[in-house]
Amino acid sequence: MFNHHTANKTIVFTLLFITLFIGFFFNENSTGGALPDFLLRIEIINSFNNDFIGTFLNYNQYPDRHSPLILILITMLLKSGLDINSIRFLHLFIVPLIIVVTYKCLISKYGKKYNYIFFFISATFFLSPTIRSISIWPDSRLLGFLFFLLSLFFFLEFNKKHKFKYAIYNTLFLILASYISPNFSIFFLYFFYTFFRHYSFSKETYKILFINLSLSIPMIYYLFILDVNFLKITAVPDINIINRINPANKILIISSLILFYSIPILLNKSVIAVCKNLIVVNKFVILSAIFFILSFFFNYSINYSGGGIFFKFSYFFFNNNYFFLIISFLSFLYIGFFFKLNLNNLLLLMILILSNPQLTIYHKYYDPLLIILFFTVFEYNFNFKKILNKKIVFNLYAFYLLFLFINLLRSFL
């Protein structure tokens, strides 16, 4: 699998892609929510088809808080003569593009020395339950993620070469990603922070700001002037604003997701070897105090849906959230000790929280986003390059195969 032959990469890529086709023909719905979400959107697509202007101007009356752009695109494809299953089939081909751009991001970050490792790392996304489900049942997140990865690629190129054109490309692709999947818009803060640090108060900085502001006007006008604010639509009604935005819920659940998607990294001798050197008593006390304050205010309910695998596991086996809170505590320690607590990482962590403004927290917003962020922009208190070997590839495939199996099993129960 790891010899230096293009044929091996082609075979692995093709076989994994075929599994996606198999999932398509058997109507795979491994995440559980992708199919019902798509069926809901079919009704909206029919409304666009019958009354485009009326549906567009009253989109916030429909129970979907995703951008209407992907639904408009599907409507246009239907009017061109394609049927819905043909559109779904074409939608699958976004996935190999995501794989290729992920590979390019890793090469940009680390160079071609690890190119075979990076190819197999990127190809694991074919096994992601989220990627598989939202490619088979079209969701705005998939195309938005592709554009986000392109923006990330140009950001990484900017960090290497410091050419202004890469900052512009990054900005344009992030805007595209944000129009299709608004959750990505908050990453503007991270990218702009880097650009500002490099250019300070200069014409380049003002150009980046101008592009962002001017190209955001149509969405601002649509959301707030025409008052078609679909972002306010809630999955769980009758929840007061305090519970809806409770930061304790978001911080603890997202921390547990960070630990979950870090499992392939943690199961590595190079990481385990540095564990003892990273433990600091003062930091342990501070992290513990913050965790216990947050756990006091934690009130995420199993009835909300979502919450992540550890939260669901806790209620499935123990009918309470105690196991989840233990995992969240370990997640806090992992982040506090293994991640550098610098402005770069703190900003990224804040963005991961702010990118999920709604009450419910689902895996699809973090899978495989966290994996690519771990490999490209997060900074660690150990030498990350030491895990770029066959072991991390094995760990990732084992992780995603098991995760996919659990999701498929749950979907059949």
Topology:
Layout: H1 6-25, H2 34-50, H3 52-57, H4 69-79, H5 84-91, H6 94-110, H7 115-123, H8 129-136, H9 140-161, H10 164-180, H11 188-199, H12 203-225, H13 241-244, H14 247-261, H15 263-266, H16 269-273, H17 275-278, H18 281-297, H19 309-318, H20 322-338, H21 343-354, H22 369-376, H23 390-412
Helix pairs in contact: 1-7, 2-4, 6-7, 6-9, 9-10, 10-12, 11-12, 14-18, 14-20, 18-20, 19-20
Which of globular, elongated, flat, extended, rod-shaped describes the shape?
Answer: globular
**SSE string, helices as H and strands as E:** HHHHHHHHHHHHHHHHHHHHHHH
Rg from C-alpha positions?
A: 21 Å
Average per-residue pLDDT, rounded, comes to: 90
What's the helical proportion of residues?
A: 55-70%
The parts where pLDDT drops under 50 for at least 5 residues are none
Q: Count the beta strands.
A: 0
Oligomeric state as shown: single chain
Number of helical stretches of at least 4 residues: 23
| Strand coverage percent | under 5%
- Judged by helices, strands and strand pairing, the structural class is mainly alpha
Compute the separation of the termini in Å.
35 Å
Structural write-up:
With 413 residues, the protein is mostly helical. Among the domains are: 144-233, no CATH class; 241-382, no CATH class. 70% of the residues lie in helices and 0% in strands. The protein has 23 helices and no strands. α6 (94-110) packs antiparallel against α7 and α14 packs across α18 (281-297). The longest helix has 23 residues, at 203-225.
Brief account:
With 413 residues, this protein is an all-alpha fold. Helices cover 70% and strands 0% of the residues.
